[in-house]
Amino acid sequence: MRKNTGWFVIICWMLMASRGAAQDDTTATDPASEPSSVDSDAVVDSEAGARMNALEERLASQEERITTLEAERVAATAREQEKDRRAVELEEKLDATQMEMEEMSLTLTTAPPEKKLNIYGFFDTTFYKAWYQQENSVLRSQNPPFSTFMMSHVNIYFSSQMTETLSALVETGFSFSPNGYETNLPVDAYVYNEATGQYELAPTLVDDSEYQRVDTTIPGGITSSSVRYGSVSIVRAHLDWRPRDWLNLRVGQYLTPYGIWNVEHASTVLLGVYYPHLMNWDLVPPSQLGLQAFGDFFLADVMQLNYALTLSNGRGPISSAMDLDENKGMGARIQTIFSGNKWKITAGSYGYYGKYTDAERRAEIYLNSDLTRSYIDGSPLGSDITYLKKFQEYIITADLSVEVAGLRVFGELVHRKVHYLVHPVMNDNAQFVQVGNFSDDRKAANHYSQSAYAIVAYQLPISAIEPVLITPYVGVDWLAPDDPLTWFEQKTFRFGLNVQPSAYVAIKTEGIIDNFADVLGGRMTSISAQLAVSF
Q: What would the pLDDT profile of 344-374 be if each residue is shown by its tens digit?
């Protein structure tokens, strides 16, 4: 049984082996099975080729990006190197410039700067015509009785800025005077004759001094025409040292720092034709010879404080040449300025104390009874001083100016006290008006002098005519130069028009009504026109 089974297994194995060999031969020789194997390989090769191409493209793209990045890196490195080079170059230039500036600064501090001289000035020409309430008013002897042209100011400035802190200024005034000046104005006295009912000349009361008028005309040389000389006044001449805004020093003859117009007094700056009475009568010394300290402080954006301290010879007949007493004139100025976009308020005050002295100096010779030189009291030669007039004066001034959108209201006030130490004799004419005769030998009395003025002006807002400025104004001016002489009081009303076609030219017209006491002729009315020019 077991033998049969073994053979059965062997026979089955052999059959299966022969069948497998037959299948292998069939597969190898079957033409239908060949195409299937070839197509499969082609597909595999195609996919592999596509992947290879994609990889190659990606590789090329990566290489291109690497090349670009490398180029950018090289360019960035070059730019950095260029920046470093330029930075070094600029630093070298900066060092060279700084050294050059230091050398220039050293040169400027050691070498004197170039001096520059500036010349400028102003002048005016005025037409005047007056009418008098009384036909034979005494005012006709003090004012032009006929219409006339006048030239009041021809002022020339010389200024120099020597260093950053040192400057000098000289202002001179030229005048046709003394040509035409009346050195003696005789006074004729007429006595009323009741029998004839007329005034008759009283020879015993006539001032027989000869009437004189100065004529400065002199003949010229052989080849020139005649010459009419005038005069030159030194208005101011001073040196300024300005190390700080709040501390400046001035030495020389300077304008007294008071009021509105005294320092800035050019005709083109002055609103009207004439200065106010307080300036015309010199109630305050217009200028002083000595020292001045001044400066300003900015306390806030809208507030400025100015000050000035003055020390000088004071007032005197020859104060610009020498002082005739040991006393010195002293003054102090304070001014506050508030300003905004379209408004400005300025308020100030000046106080002054000084002693006026007029004296004659004499040389003396001391002799013995036999007219030989005497040495009893020392040297036979000596001197003496005779005082003709001496007084103390106390002055206080105040000024105020308010400007709002073209409207300006401003004015000044002066109060002056005169206390005589040596009383002079009162002027003859003043004595006659005061006491009614010529026989009184009255001395001048202590007195007060007062004056004030106020002006309202409005700059018309006419933009169509810019830069021409048109400013009408009205004002009042009052003067009492000597309070015991009440008849000397003067009240003035003025109205006018100021036209400025440029900053250098002003054309003014003004009407004035002056009221005096009847003893001086009563009312006087006048008109004037002026052309003022700065150059």
A: 999 999 999 999 999 998 999 999 999 999 9
Helix, strand, or coil (residue 77): helix
- Asked whether residue 291 falls in the same domain as residue 223, the answer is no
| Most confident residue range from 25-34, 60-69, 203-212 | 60-69
Q: Which two tokens stand for residue 188?
A: 């004729």
Q: Quick check: 512 and 491 in contact, CB under 8 A?
A: no
Pair 307, 274: CB distance under 8 Å: no
Domain of 220 in residue numbering reads as: 178-227
3-state secondary structure of 468: coil
475 neighbors 481 (Cβ within 8 angstroms): no
Q: Where are the beta strands (DSSP E) in 99-255?
A: 117-132, 148-150, 154-161, 166-175, 182-184, 190-193, 198-201, 212-213, 217-218, 227-228, 231-241, 248-255
Q: Specify the CATH number for the domain of residue 422.
A: 2.40.160.10
Distance CA 235, CA 254 (A): 8
Quick one: how far is CA 414 from the chain centroid?
24
Report the domain count for the chain: 2
Q: CB 410: neighbour CB atoms within 10 A?
A: 19
Measure the CA–CA gap between 336 and 317, rounded to whole angstroms. Answer: 34
Query: What is the pairing mode between strands 523-534 and 505-515?
Result: antiparallel
With 50 as the cut, is the pLDDT of residue 315 above it?
yes
